[in-house]
Input
Amino acid sequence: MEGRSLGGGSKAASLPRMAALRTGTGISRRHLSTFCPGPLRYNREFWAGTAKSMSNLIVLGAQWGDEGKGKIVDLFSEKFHAVARYQGGHNAGHTVYIGERKFVLKLIPSGVLRAGVQAVIGNGVVIDPKALLEEIHGLEAMGVDVKPQLKISNRAHVIFPFHRTLEKISEGREGRIAIGTTSRGIGPCYEDKIARRGIRVADLVDSDFEQLYRALAEDKQLIADAFKLTDRVDFKEILEQYKQYAEEIRPLVCDTQHLLNGLIREGKSVLFEGAQGTMLDIDFGTYPFVTSSSAAAGGACTGTGVPPNRIDGIVGVSKAYITRVGAGPFPSEDLTELGEEIRRRGNEFGSVTGRPRRCGWFDVPLLRYTAEVNGFDSLIITKLDVLDELKEIPVCVAYEVDGKVVYEMPASTRRMEVIKPVFERLPGWRTKTQGIAQMDKLPKAAQSYLKFLEERTGVEIGSVSNGPERNETMIIPGSKLEKLLE
Ligand code: GDP
Ligand code: IMO
Ligand code: MG
Output
């Protein structure tokens, strides 16, 4: 991985900028050639890339989201040239503290907070232009000059207000078991994408947007009529609004797969920022109580257009315990006063919706499952400090189903709802750990707790976070993660 020499990059970089000639995205030639330069002819050297000194890393959630990905990506982004979001939308809420200032990033990669880092919203993301512009303006008001750093994929899909309306209707329907979504229109937008009737950013900024929009709006009107839905949607007003959004967004739009692969060919490094978590992944999560995108590591490639053989490392982020927002099975959930204490100490309230997060204990079979699905090279344990006061800490090490002990996560949600957690209890440390910067300075019981997680999950712990601030994070010397960040 390190020192991998692929050769040929400088030649590729010097070739003329003609990518726009080959684009079929509907975006103007002038626009693409300005923002997404590319060579006239592809040759073997071009594809081979360039001499490479840094790693391309995926950082993603190993549980049900809110593991502290934002904090970690912000910290690591100092070492990367670009940070890319690959799935989800403004259902994500990634919190970053820089000194006294608190940022909650929803659509924009956390890397944007570092001057000079290229922030990319990839094709796998669904974008509500209103939410995006509000986020850009909010960050600008806090002194972050977003626009020069941000690029948005022309292949990303666009969320419209009627997506939210449809979601509200579906979630609120009598007799339906609600998923407890974030009500951002994420699911219905991905539905349109998969049904091949969605509108992409390339369409939004193109001259035939109105035509495509009318076709989609008619489709939605038909559904509304068929189901006798009374919610009023002013399709014309939406059209006018979206034309305005398009004006402001247009300069940020480009072929981001080309941009990212170009950076990689130049020997630059990309950090992929996952949203949600593996247990909310559309394929591998607790279906149907999941989100509608590929939150697992594979999504980083399909959601950015960077091929799998360009990825050097995959890092899972997990809390020292576990939380979940919304409905669905949660074997190690603690519904007692202890669970509430964790919620209080960990301030476990959703960063997007403010909903209280359900709290429970570190789940070994779950983590082994997400490690297998993602191929974690390293694990980052966050919020260790939240456990500081506990006398003993339960860890779910297996499940009991029909009187049998199993170590694997069942695929059936019904089965998952009835399994019982098998707990082992580890001694607590009852000492403040916040801000301790070295593993061997942690209380012995905390070190043993981490060792236990590492041994049972089979994944090396590369970093431990014990506070929300950037500097309240230790990278374990000699770990694989340390090498990946070199
Ligand atoms: P994300 O969605 O994975 O980025 O996580 P969120 O930002 O939604 O939730 C994580 C919360 O935990 C945020 O409020 C962070 O500031 C906070 N946090 C992250 N790491 C730590 C830590 O090690 N200790 C404590 N006490 N808080 C942390
Ligand atoms: P970050 O990136 C935690 C949950 C919702 C709901 C389910 C489906 O901050 O970790 P959706 O609106 O996506 O259709 O809702 O997924 N969910 C999250 N939970 N963290 C998130 O993002 C989440 N994004 C969605 O609560 O249960
Ligand atoms: Mg979050």
Observations:
- The chain has 17 helices and 19 strands.
